[in-house]
């Protein structure tokens, strides 16, 4: 029930149920810090959950918020601390946060900070710069084989391959109407979780089949390198570059389709906390999980038929 008066909060009568263990805080603040060492960038990608407890009887019994540091504040603290301590280990980062909450708020006696850290490897490629990353951990490899007694259709693919460029991405010059509020971006983070399928030209059991494993490794390498090396004016352009590079380098493949969610990273406004974000040496982002742009397209070898379904979840 909402509090409707400003009356002094009261304790429950002896007959009323007693409050047991309780805790609160903001769960899963997704914070990404990009540290810039010239053209070499470093990523710290954390999922931080704060859980606080202490003198919280009144807020439960009567709704008095006097002892409650808002969960929104705990989220802001994570962002601000990411700017100030974000290159440190997750353990050390958690120690800073926990100490801050317990020592700065008399009503908070215990802070539990849980952190998941996502690791990123650099994408090896031939171009300048060190700002392209692939999230550590194996993607899922996919295959679909169809045979009607005469002809074969083999489609290979992958999903859950997460990649990021921490620079060399822009988005501007787009159509605008009365509902457009998106600011034009001249240097943004471009991140996506690649879902792709590619169809082999091989359809005839008499002809030698491609080396499937070698083909998979090469397609994966080419799509990563195209992602890393493309100076991107849109995710659509990057998608086309990835598919075109596969078609150009892998003669066994006739058709490629990608479904690429645009995993938006929004700069956090740290001005209210006296910190300037997006400086030459570092920037802190909020990694949003939804809604997301979804960019999908097929790239074909000239003269080949489009057979991979538009909705990759049907494959
Ligand atoms: O690369 C992009 N393509 C879009 O179509 C689009 N739309 C949008 O809001 N942001 C972006 N980014």
UniProtKB/TrEMBL annotation:
Reactions that this protein is recorded to catalyse: urate + O2 + H2O = 5-hydroxyisourate + H2O2
Segments for region (Disordered): 1-22
InterPro entries: Uricase (IPR002042)
GO molecular function: urate oxidase activity
Keyword field contains Oxidoreductase: yes
Biased composition (Polar residues): 1-11
Keyword line: Oxidoreductase, Purine metabolism
EC number(s) reported in the record: 1.7.3.3
Record pathway: Purine metabolism; urate degradation; (S)-allantoin from urate: step 1/3
Record-annotated membrane-spanning stretches: none
Similarity comment: Belongs to the uricase family.
NCBIfam families, per the entry: urate_oxi
Protein name listed in UniProt: Uricase
Organism: Streptomyces bluensis
Lineage: Bacteria, Bacillati, Actinomycetota, Actinomycetes, Kitasatosporales
Gene that encodes it: pucL
